[in-house]
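ok new one. same drill as before - structure tokens go in, u give me an amino acid for every spot. 166 of them this time. try not to just spam alanines like last time pls lmao
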């Protein structure tokens, strides 16, 4: 992709994404084995995270990495935009999409449990470009709710897209 086209795309995206909803949502089913396996990877031995399913285990907070990033990649890779009267995908090259950071907010949230059906939605926050290297950054404000409409996590994820990827 030519530098001029990259610059035009960057200007378009920084001007048009902030404050808008990311179209769609992603649904994720939570399985007992995934919760336990994930906790064990981190060396967690607390029975409230790795106990039997009958004991009513919950997900460790690190498990949010698993479902949040997975859902955002699906949302962003499927996102379409209209630019200059033509529809195009937001991500032109998925190999250039990077996870650049994450901040969690658990205030008012309930625990994730086996059997939960999570729904993940996002809204664009600040969108900016580093002029030196033309990497596009964006904060995505994410809402993750369970099947009962209860909030389970409210992360802010920062995505980065290298030139040619947007």
């Amino acid at each position: 992709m030519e530098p001029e086209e990259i610059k035009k795309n960057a200007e378009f995206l920084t001007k048009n994404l902030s404050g808008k909803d990311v179209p769609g949502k992603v649904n994720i089913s939570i399985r007992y084995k995934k919760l336990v396996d994930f906790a064990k990877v981190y060396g967690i031995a607390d029975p409230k995270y790795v106990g039997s399913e009958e004991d009513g285990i919950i997900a460790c907070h690190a498990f949010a990495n698993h479902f949040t990033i997975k859902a955002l990649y699906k949302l962003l890779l499927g996102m379409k935009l209209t630019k200059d009267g033509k529809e195009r995908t937001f991500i032109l090259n998925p190999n250039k999409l990077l996870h650049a950071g994450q901040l969690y907010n658990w205030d008012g949230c309930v625990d994730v449990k086996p059997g939960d059906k999570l729904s993940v939605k996002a809204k664009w926050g600040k969108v900016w470009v580093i002029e030196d290297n033309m990497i596009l950054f964006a904060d995505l404000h994410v809402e993750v709710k369970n099947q009962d409409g209860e909030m389970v996590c409210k992360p802010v994820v920062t995505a980065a897209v290298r030139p040619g990827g947007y």
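The chain has a mean pLDDT of 95. and btw The domain at 3-161 is CATH 3.10.129.10 (Thiol Ester Dehydrase; Chain A).
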